[in-house]
């Protein structure tokens, strides 16, 4: 009798855990585990694989982190990540245009991106305050519009640095700009731990992310941060207790936009290239999907969600091509990536989220 | 004096209500002279594009009536149409019979996809648009899975000409040369150098008649009730979930037909990209015609297809004239398509929010009056 009671309790604990963890997350984590187990059997070097996952984690983590403030203030998933990315791209390209090189170009890129990110964030936040309840659809299209608008701008703005513009005409930025001599591996190169000949753990980038993550965590525990969370979880209650809802939301949007700008610069220094034109589009879905895989929902997100989600998502992205290719000689990684990322977003959208406005 | 003021106000309201079409008329008016195209060329192109796209745009109307907003998941129907066309071209059935058979084959696929889409959307009430947007992306992955990996080993594909050299999966382009414009050319008439695809327009007219008739049926009325207020509709005994699913279903099937008409006009299928932009362009065109997220008419669809595609034709060469780079114009038209959708969504959300706060104020006032009495 007693035995069965404990069994029941254990079962319910398990069920609660499963419910909290979510079935898709479990499937994805299991899939990744399977990939890691399979890797040695198909002849993939596990050290290289893990090193790749850590590297890709370091590129993307700040971008994923940028979603946290807006989720906290109840603005939902920020599909307008491209807005922040554009600010970062402007910072990076202007820094190179002004002739900064080496680590200084990275610092200047951040400094120059900041006013763009803040201004765009204020405009974006003011817009989102006028359309409460319809944020996600509008953020999507704001993101798409700003990218296609910037496509024109990259051609028309008076850039002239020979490393960036088309050689023949001397105007218009090239789609891919190498960062060699500028901020390529500027963070990753700080105290790297070598794994193999050309692979190392990017300590600097990880520390940089940890620093930003800590700052966000600390901010969310200040008075302002708590107020922001209150706005997200119950706006009427927040208003009743004297919090300026619109101001909090605006602040969260500016923070998200700025973090996304920093995020793309961190991504570029790891990747080694600036990608312009429609390339930022390809970053939106992986970013949003990552935080959801990590356990966030439309109105709840934490730093562990960011870390777990980015590792899981980037793990799948890096592992599937190698493992599946050698297993069944088919490159299905692209399809898996599309299905996993969009499936995850759909799962989050179709769940009944209590207290959402 | 007062009437004049009232007239001005009315005119202002009219301009405000139709700001998007007016903006587009201005864009077109500026771009057409810059582009340097002759009127007959433009007329020809617009007529062709009307025949090609109107069917696809009309499929968006029914979900709007049912309150589901813009159905970004119309792409699902487009995918069904493409799969049907790939199969039919593998079976080597060409011309009008091929088109008709493709339409028949597309129906079960569309129904299946529409059913799935409707079920998912019912779980995401209040967030239909963003959900349908991601359904289209998700199903694009599934589509690739089917077309790239299953066609060949699981779904028999006989002809090497449409298979990838590796033995399974479909090539990037499937030629529909023997089917090309078979619907458009049948009964086509030529007026002053402008080819008018009469049969295609007849089919579009038939769809319009169906839409007009459908709105008057019991189901159509139910949909309108559901679109206005789900709770009230439920209290009135309408099966809300079922009605919504049916609306998505019809939209998906019509989108499938539309895609087949679109592709027979184009003459080939870009297997992996034909459907990816079609949802965005159709929605943008409908919005350009003056539709909003909650209200759209057949007239909006026709005006939209003309204005939007006129802009689409003239923008690249006008852009090249102004900036010396044809890419600017290409980016400009994509920007405008996205921008129009963004503006329409913002206007809708702002209006909804205003209506809600108005309702709250009315309620508060009513309560106050009750207290006073």
Notes on the structure:
The complex is a heterodimer of chains A (357) and B (373). With 357 residues, chain A is mainly α. Chain A is 70% helix and 4% strand. Chain A has one domain (24-350): ABC transporter involved in vitamin B12 uptake, BtuC (Orthogonal Bundle). In chain A, the strands form 2 sheets. Chain A has a two-stranded antiparallel sheet with strand order 1-4. In chain A, helix 3 packs antiparallel against helix 13, helix 5 crosses helix 11 and helix 13 (303-328) runs antiparallel to helix 14. The model of chain A has no long low-confidence stretch (mean pLDDT 85). Chain B has one domain. Chain B has 15 helices and 4 strands. In chain B, the strands form 2 sheets. Chain B has a two-stranded antiparallel ribbon with strand order 1-4. A two-stranded antiparallel sheet of chain B has the order 2-3. The chains are: A mainly alpha (357), B mainly alpha (373).
Q: What layout of secondary structure does this protein have?
A:
The complex is a heterodimer of chains A (357) and B (373).
Chain A: H1 2-21, H2 23-41, H3 46-65, H4 68-72, H5 81-97, H6 102-130, H7 135-156, E1 176-178, E2 193-196, E3 199-201, H8 203-220, H9 223-233, H10 235-240, H11 245-271, E4 273-275, H12 281-293, H13 303-328, H14 333-350
Antiparallel strand pairs in A: 1-4, 2-3
Helix pairs in contact in A: 2-13, 3-8, 3-11, 3-12, 3-13, 5-6, 5-7, 5-11, 6-11, 9-11, 12-13, 12-14, 13-14
Chain B: H1 2-17, H2 19-35, H3 39-58, H4 61-65, H5 75-90, H6 95-122, H7 128-150, E1 173-175, H8 182-185, E2 189-191, E3 194-196, H9 198-216, H10 218-228, H11 230-235, H12 240-266, E4 268-270, H13 278-288, H14 298-323, H15 326-372
Antiparallel strand pairs in B: 1-4, 2-3
């Amino acid at each position: 009798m007693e035995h069965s009671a404990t069994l029941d309790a254990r079962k319910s604990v398990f069920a609660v855990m499963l419910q909290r963890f979510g079935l898709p997350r479990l499937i994805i984590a299991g899939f990744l585990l399977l990939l890691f187990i399979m890797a040695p059997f198909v002849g993939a070097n596990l050290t290289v694989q893990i090193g790749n996952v850590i590297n890709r984690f370091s590129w993307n983590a700040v971008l994923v982190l940028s979603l946290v403030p807006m989720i906290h203030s109840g603005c939902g998933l920020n599909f307008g990540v491209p807005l922040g990315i554009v600010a970062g791209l402007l910072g990076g390209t202007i820094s190179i245009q002004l002739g900064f090189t080496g680590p200084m170009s990275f610092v200047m890129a951040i400094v120059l991106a900041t006013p763009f990110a803040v201004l765009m964030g204020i405009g974006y936040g003011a817009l989102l305050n006028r359309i409460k309840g319809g944020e996600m659809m509008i953020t999507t299209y704001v993101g798409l519009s700003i990218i296609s608008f910037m496509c024109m701008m990259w051609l028309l703005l008076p850039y002239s640095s020979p490393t960036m513009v088309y050689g023949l005409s001397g105007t218009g930025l090239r789609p891919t700009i190498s960062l060699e001599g500028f901020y390529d591996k500027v963070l990753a190169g700080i105290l790297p731990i070598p794994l193999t000949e050309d692979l190392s753990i990017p300590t600097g980038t990880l520390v940089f992310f940890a620093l930003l993550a800590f700052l966000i965590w600390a901010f969310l525990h200040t008075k302002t941060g708590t107020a922001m969370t209150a706005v997200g979880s119950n706006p009427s209650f927040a208003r009743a207790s004297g919090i300026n809802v619109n101001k909090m939301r605006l602040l969260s949007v500016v923070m998200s936009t700025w973090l996304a700008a920093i995020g793309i610069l961190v991504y570029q220094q790891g990747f080694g290239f600036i990608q312009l034109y429609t390339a930022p589009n390809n970053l939106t879905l992986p970013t949003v999907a990552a935080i959801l895989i990590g356990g966030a929902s439309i109105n709840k997100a934490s730093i562990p969600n960011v870390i777990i989600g980015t590792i899981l998502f980037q793990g799948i992205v890096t592992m599937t091509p190698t493992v599946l290719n050698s297993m069944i000689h088919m490159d299905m990684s692209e399809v898996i990536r599309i299905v996993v990322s969009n499936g995850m977003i759909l799962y989050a959208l179709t769940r009944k989220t209590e207290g959402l406005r | 004096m007062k009437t004049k003021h009232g007239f001005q106000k009315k005119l202002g309201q009219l301009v405000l209500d139709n700001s998007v079409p007016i903006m587009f008329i201005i864009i077109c008016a500026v771009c057409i002279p810059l582009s340097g195209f002759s009127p007959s060329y433009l007329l020809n192109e617009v007529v062709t594009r009307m025949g090609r796209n109107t069917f696809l745009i009309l499929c968006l109307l029914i979900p709007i009536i049912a309150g589901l907003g813009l159905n970004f998941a119309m792409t699902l129907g487009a995918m069904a149409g493409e799969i049907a066309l790939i199969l039919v071209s593998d079976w080597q059935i060409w011309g009008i019979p091929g088109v008709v058979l493709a339409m028949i084959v597309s129906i079960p696929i569309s129904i299946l996809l529409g059913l799935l889409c409707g079920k998912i959307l019912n779980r995401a009430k209040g967030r239909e648009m963003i959900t349908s947007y991601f359904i289209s992306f998700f199903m694009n992955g599934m589509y690739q899975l089917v077309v790239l990996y299953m066609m060949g080993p699981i779904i028999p594909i006989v002809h090497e000409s449409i298979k990838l050299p590796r033995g399974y999966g479909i090539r990037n382009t499937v030629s529909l040369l023997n089917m090309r414009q078979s619907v458009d050319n049948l009964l086509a008439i030529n007026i002053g150098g402008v080819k008018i695809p009469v049969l295609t327009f007849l089919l579009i007219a038939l769809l319009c008649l169906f839409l007009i008739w459908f709105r008057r049926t019991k189901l159509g009325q139910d949909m309108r009730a559901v679109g206005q207020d789900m709770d009230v509709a439920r209290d009135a005994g309408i099966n809300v979930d079922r009605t919504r699913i049916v609306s998505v279903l019809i939209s998906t099937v019509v989108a499938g037909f539309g895609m087949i008409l679109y592709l027979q006009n184009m003459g080939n299928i870009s297997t992996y990209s034909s459907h990816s932009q079609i949802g965005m362009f159709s929605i943008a065109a409908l919005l350009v015609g003056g539709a909003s997220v909650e209200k759209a008419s057949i007239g909006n669809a026709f005006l939209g297809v003309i204005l939007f595609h006129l802009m689409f034709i003239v923008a690249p060469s006008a852009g090249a004239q102004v900036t010396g780079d044809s890419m600017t114009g290409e980016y400009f038209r994509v920007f405008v398509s996205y921008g129009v959708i963004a503006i329409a969504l913002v206007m809708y959300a702002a209006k909804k929010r205003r209506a809600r706060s108005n309702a709250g104020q009315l309620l508060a006032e009513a309560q106050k009056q009750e207290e006073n009495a």
